[in-house]
Design goal:
10% helix, Porin
């Protein structure tokens, strides 16, 4: 799965770069940072377990590749913290905070509604770096959950000169429950990020006297 994801990203980067060059579009690079407000979701009602939102950090780099005047492709490479605070009456016998650290690779298709306002959708592969359970006991649970999550995402964005602001929803598709034989939980989050593009506009050449 990881090799397939890397191959897809590489092919998209290569083909889109060639396309952007043919249309004289300019590829832009940048950094971004922000916050995840995440929790676990489930299709099953567990009356003894309540999930609460926890904040997490997200930061990394992105490549903005114009495909036309309206459409663009944006792969990103992020460190992303997800998880949830679980309040349990009997399932685990207490309250626990689950913190999952991922290396995330989103691939977004953006549509420019106006010059400074866009909507986007795509998918991302989340590769688990480390997972921790905080409570009694507090322990590392990296090898007790799936090490990969496939996430769907969609959102809106705006920009101002070299700055950009994105708001998106993340919808995980893999079961990340510690006790998968008893419970089923999936990642979900609302993510807000601020980006800064490194490419500056070229200065106008002075007219010859």
């Amino acid at each position: 799965m990881r090799k397939l994801l890397a191959a897809v990203v590489a092919v998209c980067l290569c083909s889109s770069t060639i396309f952007s060059q043919s249309t004289k579009a300019k590829t832009k690079f940048g950094f971004k940072a922000g916050i995840n407000l995440s929790s676990f979701r489930t299709a099953v009602n567990y009356p003894n377990i309540k999930q609460n939102i926890i904040p997490g950090l997200v930061l990394g780099t992105y490549v903005h590749i114009p495909l036309s005047s309206r459409f663009s492709l944006q792969p990103e490479f992020l460190y992303s913290q997800l998880g949830s605070r679980s309040n349990s009456i009997s399932q685990w016998g207490g309250n626990y905070t689950f913190r999952y650290n991922y290396f995330s690779i989103p691939l977004l298709v953006k549509y420019n509604i106006t010059k400074c306002f866009n909507a986007f959708a795509g998918a991302e592969g989340d590769i688990l770096i480390r997972a921790r359970q905080k409570g009694t006991p507090t322990k590392t649970i990296t090898y007790d959950i799936k090490d990969f999550d496939f996430v769907y995402t969609a959102g809106i964005g705006t920009c101002s000169k070299q700055w950009s602001f994105d708001l998106r929803y993340l919808h995980g598709s893999q079961d990340v429950s510690l006790a998968s034989s008893e419970t089923t939980f999936f990642n979900q989050a609302v993510q807000f990020t601020v980006g800064y593009e490194l490419n500056k506009k070229a200065k106008k050449s002075k007219k010859a006297k």
